[in-house]
Amino acid sequence: MFFAMSAFIAGPYLIKVALDSGIAAGNLDVLQQAVALYLLASIAFWIGTFFRVRTMAVTGQSIIYDLRRELFDHIQNLSLGFFSRYAPRHSEIRSKSFD
């Protein structure tokens, strides 16, 4: 997260350097370096964002899996009397465990 945000924040500063020290001063070397660093910062931001999104997706899916597994185990341990007593709502129980 820190890696991606650092790269994101570096972008505007590199544009400032390219404009002030590169174009305005007529220094082509500074301009090329600023553009190269900007591209590297953009790639670093993309990589950092990719890993952040992937980590959040894996974490979220893991939490959902754990919750579904606990619910399934709980339903499996209920007595048959429970299902007889709540037969009209049986479809509701089933929909909660499969959604």
What's the alpha carbon Rg, rounded to whole Å? 27 Å
Which percent bin holds the helix content? over 70%
Coarse shape? rod-shaped
Q: Total strand count, please?
A: 0
Q: State the separation between the terminal residues, measured CA to CA.
A: 32 Å
Compute the average pLDDT: 87
Number of domains: 1
What is the N-to-C order of secondary-structure elements (H for helix, E for strand)? HHHH
- Beta-strand residue fraction: under 5%
Which spans of ≥5 residues are poorly predicted at pLDDT below 50? none
Structural class, from secondary structure content? mainly alpha
Q: Count every helix, treating DSSP H or I runs of 4 or more residues as helices.
A: 4
Biggest sheet details:
none
Spell out the key features of this protein.
single chain, mainly alpha
Secondary-structure blueprint of this entry?
Blueprint (H helix, E strand, L loop, with lengths): L1 H22 L4 H49 L3 H6 L4 H9 L1
Explained architecture:
With 99 residues, the chain is an all-alpha fold. It has one domain. The chain is built from 4 helices and no strands. The protein has helices at 2-23, 28-76, 80-85, 90-98. Helix 1 (2-23) packs antiparallel against helix 2 (28-76). The longest helix is centred in the middle third of the chain and has 49 residues, at 28-76. The radius of gyration is 27 Å and the shape is rod-shaped. The mean pLDDT is 87.
